[in-house]
Structure formats: C-alpha cells, structure tokens
Amino acid sequence: MADIQIITDAGSDLLKEEQERFGIEVIPIKITADGKDYLSGVDVFSDEFYELLETCKEIPHTSQPSTGDIYDVFQKHIEAGKQILVISLSSNASGFYNNMHLAKNMILEENPNAVIEILDSRSFAYIYGQAAINASQMAKDDMDILEIKEKTKEFIESYGVFVIPKSLTYLEKGGRINKASLIFGNMLDLAPVLTIKDGLMEAVGKVRGRKKLAKKLFQYLVSHAPDQTGKDLIVVNGKMDEETEELLGYLTEQFPGVNITRAKVGPTIATHIGPVFGVFFKK
Length: 283
What we know:
Elements: E1 4-9, H1 16-22, E2 25-27, E3 30-33, E4 36-39, H2 46-55, E5 61-63, H3 67-79, E6 83-88, H4 96-110, E7 116-120, H5 126-140, H6 145-157, E8 159-165, H7 169-174, E9 190-197, E10 200-208, H8 213-224, E11 232-238, H9 241-254, E12 259-264, H10 267-273, E13 276-282
Parallel strand pairs: 1-2, 1-6, 6-7, 11-12
Antiparallel strand pairs: 3-4, 3-5, 8-13, 9-10, 11-13
C-alpha cells in the first residue's frame, strides 16, 4: 500500500509531542501582535499566548501561509514517494484552504501522478487535530487514502460543540462569527453559547449571568445532547481553567464510562476567540 503523509495546520492545536508521535506535519500560521510576528506552535504556545493577549495594545491577527510555503511542504513529501492527505482549518474562516488547492495544482502540473487529497474540516481547534491523529493511525493500517478521507470527514461531522467565550470582542473583530449572533453579546447579563455552523462560529443559545458558567454549560449540553454515557468527549480550555475543571467534574459524574480528551485552545484559534472553554460531544 502507498505511504500516506497526514498534514494539517496550526489551527488544529496539536501539541509538538503529538505531531512527533503520530508523524503528522503541521503547517504553522503566522500571528502578528503589536507589530511582532510569531509562528503558532513554533514561537508561541497556548499558555504564553494568553499572557500576550492580556498585554497587547491591539487585538492580534493571523496571516495564512503562502501558496509557495504550502507547495514546499507538499513537494517534500511527494519527492519522498508519499501520498498526501491534508485536513484543513474551515475554509469559511480562512483563505488557507484555497491556497492549499493552488499549491496542489502546482504540484500536479509538474507531476500528474502525485496524489494529494484535501479535506475541509469546516471546523476549528482540536476536533480536527484529533481527526488528524485518527487519520495517521488509519494510514499505518494501510487503508486507502480516499477511505481515510471519508472516515475522517465522518468523524468530524459526528461531533457537535458548545463553548462559552469570556468575551465576544475577539470574534467580533476577527469576523469568525455569524454577525447576527453578536446580538447575544449585547444583552444585559447574558453569556452566549457558541457552536460551529457552516464553518463559522454562531451563537445558538444563552445563559444568564457569568457566574457558575461551567454548570450552566453542562446543563445546556445535557438539555441538547443528553446521552453521552460511554462516549468520547473533547474538553477544550483556552485559559479558563477554573471553569474547565468544574465542567470535567460534571461530565464524569453525569456520564459513567465517558472517555474525555483534554485539549488546550492554541494561539491560532485564541487570536479569534480569546479565552474560552467548552466541549465537543457526540451528536
């Protein structure tokens, strides 16, 4: 069977040790903060980035990798005789996905026999990082690249997500939220519950007050997806440690046998959402 290389981007929030353990190539994403450039997952990581957010005079912004940079990554693996499966940040939130296709077409012009498959995760954060890990394991089991791509798509689509950000400021400035959802941020004493819809963040509900957010998010989850017993959940934490720990307690108490993966929200996503916590759950 063909040797398959799994590639994703820094928005997947894969840790360096996970990248190395599973042989996943992660394309870094540039973040500019107060005129200084950083590479997410290379120069700056989750915890220190949230400290940076607190001191920035202006909200940082990301820059997508160039077509040339992506071409170089693809070419390296094609020359090594590999097929490539890319799992990308939502195309609705970045031009990264389009640049990947441009780079792919450049490769195919030179080498029509090259195999490069690109999957639009239509998502954010560790859900497609976990999908990349799963894909790498399937590749090691000698599965066909198109079958891996389809199963990876099914895995991502099998999850829903509810998160509560500390503020809507970053989403509003960065344009990664359905604009109609911003009304929730302007309501007195209400915190928005966000999900991912059509590749963008969208407010789907609200909880009253910003105290005991973990309990309120947990209750919101139970009211919409009550049966998570024995299932696989992903709890994400972007510098809301207290709320995250409380949420973990509620989940393990309510759902016997639940398997919880903990993940940090890294710099790429944090640039556009700020401090946040939440859970990816089985639909």
